[in-house]
Amino acid sequence: MTKLLGVIAIAAVAFAVAPAQAAKHSMGGCSGANLEKTETAIEAMPDGDSKFVAEKEITAAQDALLNGKMGVCGMHLNKAMQATMGK
Q: What pLDDT, in 10s, does the model give residues 52-85?
């Protein structure tokens, strides 16, 4: 009975967290539109270390997208976006 309650508790947490994670990925996830926006922002950047980092991250994001690794793609895309903002 204790194991059953544990399984139910874990399932309840999973159902509560899953929609939040899906919403998070749909807002800033790895998509062609987000890649294009970030690439445009990178092109407008002045040459320097930040631009080099952003170009490296966008390349890694594109590679991950082509390999179907959406989580990895989103991570690299996020880093590229942050580099374009100078953070």
A: 999 999 999 999 888 888 888 989 988 888 888 8
Query: What does the block give as tokens for 20?
Result: 């939040």
Could you please report the per-residue DSSP string of the chain? -HHHHHHHHHHHHHHHHHHHHHHHHHHHSS-HHHHHHHHHHHHHSPSSHHHHHHHHHHHHHHHHHHTT-HHHHHHHHHHHHHHHTT-
Token representation of residue 17: 């967290």
Position 8 scores a pLDDT of 62
Chain-centre distance for alpha carbon 39: 15
Whether the predicted model's global pTM rises above the 0.70 cut: no
Please choose, from the candidates 28, 31, 32, the residue with its C-alpha nearest in 3D space to the C-alpha of residue 81: 28
